[in-house]
Amino acid sequence: MPQKYKKGFHPYIEGRRLFLREVRQEDVNDDYYSWMNDPEVTRYLETRYIPQSRENISRYVEAMSGKRDEIFLAICMRKSAAHIGNIKLGPINWIHRFADISLIIGEKKCWGKGYGSEAIRMLSRYAFEVLNLHKLRSGLYSDNIGSARAFRKAGFTEEGRLKRQWISVGGFQDELLFGLCEEVWRSNA
Questions:
Q1: Which of 129, 8, 118, 41 lies closest to 73, judged by CA?
Q2: Sequence spans of domains, the chain
């Protein structure tokens, strides 16, 4: 077990290089604040249109705590316990057994190293094996190449495209719709 785990601490979901745990108020620090106000980090987030104060971020973290239909987790490095981003499952539709997955890797030095796809795989396994969901989905801006690569690497496939859905730098962009069904995930697990 990594040295940074405190006595009695157990990660919510543990992977090879990462662990996922609840997002805490103590996570709303200089790094998190910096991520949420960095145009490069938030390029594909709807929050990019409004400057984010620490108070706004803190209120969001508080509002997400304990929600039944959304699971909001910190993505942390196993070796150092460093918080490098967040991943969310939800909203969860318990009747039809599907949910959306979205994530942000805020630490730019961690981009392009496969942490996004590892976190997606970890949360997908939890969604299918523990929550008994049937399908996971994600919608991405068409030029969000890093996220598209991470979802494909995690087993998701492109299921559709909404033409000129989102305004972005340079004009309107398509939204790519990705999905992964439980039986496909099981056949590849």
A1: 118
A2: 13-134
Where is 179: in which H helix or E strand? strand 171-181
Task: Give the pLDDT mean for 90-113.
Answer: 97
CATH class of 13-134: alpha beta
Q: Categorize the per-residue pLDDT at 61 as very low, low, confident or very high, splitting at 50, 70 and 90.
A: very high
Q: What is the pTM of this model?
A: 0.92
Take residue 59 and report the two structure tokens written for it.
């209120």
Within 8 A by CB and 6+ apart from 31, the residues are 83, 106, 107
What is the bridge-based pairing of β-strands 18-22 and 13-14?
antiparallel
Q: In this structure, what are the phi and psi dihedrals at residue 158, rounded to the nearest 5 degrees?
A: -75, 125
Q: How far apart are CA 71 and CA 120, in angstroms?
A: 13
Distance of CA 7 to the CA centre of its chain: 27
Tell me how many helices (H) and strands (E) the chain has. Answer: 5, 8
